[in-house]
Amino acid sequence: MTGNKSPAGRWLELLKVPSGNPALTVAQFEAFSKQVPLLYFILATNMISLSWTHQGAAPDYLVVFLPAVMATLFAMRSLIWLRGRKRERTPEQAYRQLKATNILSFPIAVFCTIWSISLLPYGDPYQKAHVAFFMAITVIGCIFCLMHLRSAALIVTVTVNLPFFVVMLMSGEPTFIATGVNVILVTMAMIMILVSHYRDFRQLHESRNVLMLQQQALQEQNKAMQALSDENLRLANLDSLTLLANRRSFFHMLETAFNRASSSNGRLAVGVIDLDGFKPVNDLYGHSAGDKVLIEISNRLSTITDKRLSVYRLGGDEFGLLLQGDVAEGDAMALGEKVCELIAERINIGSGMVQVTGSVGFALYPDVGETGQEIYELADYALYTAKRRHRAGTVIFNAVQANELNRQKIVEEALVAADLDKELSLVYQPITCVDRRICIGFEALARWQSPRIGQVSPAEFIPVAEHNGRITLMTRMLLKRALKTAALWPDNVYLSFNLSPHDLTSPENTLKIVSIVLKSNFDPRRINFEITETAVMHDFEQASASIQMLRELGAGISLDDFGTGYSSLNHVHKLPLTKIKIDGSFVRNIHNRKTSFNIVKSVLALCYEMELEAIVEGVETEEELRILENLGVRAVQGYYFGKPMTAEETLKRLALQDAQALAS
Fold first, then answer.
1. Of 316, 422, 482, 556, whose CB count within 10 A is highest?
2. How far apart are CA 537 and CA 275, in angstroms?
3. How far is CA 279 from the centre of its chain?
């Protein structure tokens, strides 16, 4: 170990080129290589200057030939260093070159010392003083130039100064003796500066290396953070289930595409897809099966080869489409048909095969819309139209939908400003027993007479009320009125009252309905709440819990519009129903349509097996009634037996019915 070496050993160590730190060796070489040409320049100019002053006083071989050879050698070495200073060296190459310089420094120092001392016997005192000056200035210049190669600087210092000091002492000349002592003292100070400078250089290099390592670590950290940020951004714009771009990405790209299209007078088609019959898959097979359906449909949509198209999952069972470039209405319609075909193919979920369909709505810019968001909303309305009238088909937003949407906005504005207590009313349509031809109940139907826009049909204002959240308020208000009217009817006549999906979406809403019934003192067993399959599909678990709560109250539950939704049989089996209302669309022309006849017959058989009462809606003719009666239908509703009537008219109808019963 270095700490156990003798003083002589430590001094010898100082005269070697350090090799323990490769990075420091390269740094030494880079700094030293810049000083070498200056070193040779100092040696050459000093030698030429001394030779010049001794011309004629000393032999030519001392003042001409030897200086010429050495000056040439110094010039050649300078050129070699100048040409190679930009070339990168490995630590091994740098070490070898520094070591070679270290070795070469000794003979050069010996030569210069012997040569200059050889000139002392010649010339006058001024010329001799020049020799002393040459040796002093040369050694000082060499020390400065060799600062980054401490070993070479020490070799030159020792090799030159010791002989110089001895010669000066032996001269006996006080001036030379003083010069020798002065040079020795200055040189010692220079050596201290050299050692201090070398130490500072080494520490600076180590600090620089530490700083560079810290910078590299910081850069790696920044890269890692950037990679993490990029990954987070990718995940933030990616749907984790289907690996399609998500809703956030859709609206970002929609704005980008819209800005591009509006600035370049281009075109843009925005599509919205909604799956029909997806929720029953979740209800029947579980959410894992629903996930498989979504993944499969996403994969199918991704196979559409159109560079203009990008596909997104907007959430749930809804997907988005962006079709950019030269897009015509025919392109959008063809794409919609392709999408519907792909979705309609059967899907293997492992435990069986399922089938869902898809409805698509499109809006095309610049035909409609002034912002990206507005185009999306118009496409969504086109989807709404498709689901109502062209299920499993494609609808492109047009003038018809524009008029409907405008009407919807008018209705919504009027409904928001409406005094519901004054403007809403109820009418009651009789439910008739076929065998006895008597009214056994009434269905309460809402009516709205707006002072601003006149009479508005329930088909218009109920969806709007469900959209803006006023439907639950309307339900409670109308239920109180209906119960008040029904309290005047005979005990054998029941009230049928419609509930919206929003009335079943939370325990709080259902409890408020229960509270209204209890406060009315009306017998809950005389109430029949009608629910649609849409209400059940909205949130089956919660709807089922709400229905059970109403059944525990004593009320009956009817599944309205049976046969027009999806997986109706599944809901019938799972829900605590008491009645099924067969939709009137199956009754019209039942005498000419065998399919309708068979459907009604099958539903009646189902009701019989499950001990459910069946009520057939939409009966308008004697012929329809006769066929239904032959099928065993016991209760019907329709214009044939009575149109919706006011509360006062129900009392008259029931009074007349009682009078006829007494007369018979």
1. 482
2. 13
3. 27
Segment (H or E) for 583: none
Comparing 24-33, 71-80, 452-461, which segment has the lowest mean pLDDT?
24-33
What tens digit of pLDDT does each residue of 2-13 get?
Answer: 445 565 555 566
What tokens does 92 get? 């091994």
Output the CA angle 542-545-547, nearest 5 degrees: 110
Helix count and strand count (H, E) for the chain: 25, 16
Distance CA 513, CA 205 (A): 83
Residues with Cβ within 8 Å of residue 386, at least 6 apart in sequence: 359, 360, 361, 393, 394, 395
As given in the structure block, the two tokens for residue 595 are 């399919």
pLDDT at residue number 1: 43
Q: What is the pLDDT of residue 567?
A: 45
pLDDT tens digit sequence for 367-391: 888 899 999 999 999 998 888 777 8
Report the alpha-carbon angle 258-263-269, nearest 5: 30
Overall size of the chain counted in residues: 664
Torsion of CA 597, 602, 607, 610, to 10 degrees: 180
Task: Choose the weakest-confidence range: 30-39, 215-224, 326-335, 552-561.
Answer: 30-39
Task: Write out the two tokens for 342.
Answer: 């792909």
Share of the chain above pLDDT 90, in %: 37
Cα-trace Rg, the chain? 52
Tell me how far CA of residue 104 lies from CA of 108, 148, 152, 285, 454, in angstroms. Answer: 6, 16, 9, 90, 113
Q: Are the C-beta atoms of residues 476 and 516 closer than 8 Å to each other?
A: yes
Burial 490-503, CB ≥16 within 10 A → b, else e: eeebbbbbbbbbbb
Element (H, E) at 433: strand 424-433
297-349, pLDDT tens digit by residue?
999 999 998 889 999 999 889 999 999 988 899 999 999 999 999 999 999 98
Q: Token pair 């198209």 is at which residue?
A: 309
Query: What pLDDT, on the 0 to 100 scale, is given for residue 111?
Result: 83
Q: Is the dihedral of CA 261, 265, 266, 271 positive or negative?
A: positive
Phi-psi region of 485 (alpha: psi -120 to 50; beta: other; left: phi over 0): alpha
User: For the ranges 45-54, 200-209, 294-303, which has the lowest average pLDDT?
Assistant: 200-209
Which one, of 52, 50, 56, 39, lies nearest residue 135 by Cα? 50
Q: CA torsion sign, 431 to 435 to 436 to 437?
A: positive
Q: How far is CA 127 from CA 51, 54, 56, 167, 633, in A?
A: 10, 7, 12, 16, 143
Contact (Cβ atoms closer than 8 angstroms) between residue 452 and residue 636: no
Percent pLDDT > 70 in the chain is 90
Q: How is residue 224 written in tokens? A: 């890692």
Write the CB contacts of 593 (distance below 8 Å, at least 6 apart in sequence): none
In angstroms, the CA 21 to CA 2 distance is 15
